[in-house]
Amino acid sequence: MSDLIRIALLFRLMPGYTEGVVRGLATYARPGKPWLFRLFNQPDAAEVRAFKPHAGICSLVDETTATAVKRLRFPLVNLGVREFAPRLVQAGNDDRAIGTMAARHFLGRGFRSFAYLALHRNPAVERRGAGFRDTLAAAGHACAWHTGPEYDSWLRALPRGTAVFAFNDHVAAQLADRCRVLGRCLPEDLALIGADNTESVCLLAWPPLSSVAVAAERIGQTAGAMLDELLAGRKPASRFLPPLGVITRQSSDLIAVEEPEVAAALRFITEHAHEPIRVGDILRAVPIARRTLETRFRARLGRSLLDEIQRVHLERAKHLLLTTDWPMPRIAEASGFSDAKRFATVFGQVESTTPLKFRRGT
């Protein structure tokens, strides 16, 4: 019993993100680590100290929790907002990348009006919103940003065809409920996407919510490796992992393009993301002159058909890099690239890193 290493888990276990983190932590720790875990949903300092932890994992989401946790005298990894305890080692999401992925999802579907909703302010809220807003700005679009629990007037004023990114799935579900009350149909009137891919929340909402899936299990594994470092007397560098991809459900499953040929081309490219398609394949599915389609496509979306094919292939490849352990040749083939060499070349040109470094989060 004395050989056991006691690990305090100082966060509320909830479906979705923290549940995924715990699965990843368990995968890292079992069966070889002599770690004894105890979960403290609402940490009481005396109760935690009585457990005599060697180390722990916390999730700081407000100043009150941060003040209480910082009084504890054992090494900690923080899963929450880094600014509340900047001296702690952090394992968490790349929040800007989450916002960027939501924006790219909507841009790829042809939307031209955008909005971001959060119910309160904190640095993570700001980072997700900034990633969304800045990606849209780079494509020439503005973003209507609202923070606060009262948003009916803001919601009523959004133009038809607006694509809305909510800070997380819980906010998105509340927004979907308000849309039903106010008579705004999803996705025909407004398209909606959340974040974290909390399936119980996404599937109970109506219509079911699209969401940016985060790397919760990988974050749990990363936190476990950081605990090992801390227990050995070393302080590891903080790590922020990119999201896994967008899980598309009914709330955003719409091609927001009026021109039927352009919409058909977009849908064909999306549905064949796993194949080595060429422009000629699109033209066989969309009976129109190539120059006409190219001109209309670029005028509507600001990119060529070849650009869109490459973008969709790369998005699929990134998803596979983060969610499978497949070797590079298999990922290349499953993402529509001719071979692993071509895949690595294109990936490096666009992402400024290698597929292997992207997978490792380095």
Can you describe this structure?
The protein is of the alpha/beta class and 362 residues long. The protein folds into three domains: 5-92 and 216-241, Rossmann fold, CATH 3.40.50; 95-214 and 246-252, Rossmann fold (3-Layer(aba) Sandwich); 260-360, Homeodomain-like (Arc Repressor Mutant, subunit A). Helix content is 48%, strand content 15%. It has helices at 17-29, 45-51, 63-70, 95-108, 123-138, 152-157, 169-182, 199-204, 216-231, 260-271, 279-285, 290-301, 305-323, 328-334, 340-351, 355-360; strands at residues 5-10, 35-39, 55-58, 76-78, 89-93, 113-118, 144-147, 162-166, 190-195, 210-213, 239-241, 245-247. The strands form two sheets. It has a six-stranded parallel sheet. It has a six-stranded mixed sheet with strand order 7-6-8-9-10-12, with helices on both faces. Helix 3 links the parallel strand 3 and strand 4. Helix 14 packs across helix 15. The protein is globular, with a radius of gyration of 22 Å. The two termini are 38 Å apart. The relative contact order is 0.11.
Topology:
Layout: E1 5-10, H1 17-29, E2 35-39, H2 45-51, E3 55-58, H3 63-70, E4 76-78, E5 89-93, H4 95-108, E6 113-118, H5 123-138, E7 144-147, H6 152-157, E8 162-166, H7 169-182, E9 190-195, H8 199-204, E10 210-213, H9 216-231, E11 239-241, E12 245-247, H10 260-271, H11 279-285, H12 290-301, H13 305-323, H14 328-334, H15 340-351, H16 355-360
Parallel strand pairs: 1-2, 1-3, 3-4, 4-5, 5-11, 6-7, 6-8, 8-9, 9-10
Antiparallel strand pairs: 10-12
Helix pairs in contact: 1-9, 4-5, 10-13, 13-14, 14-15
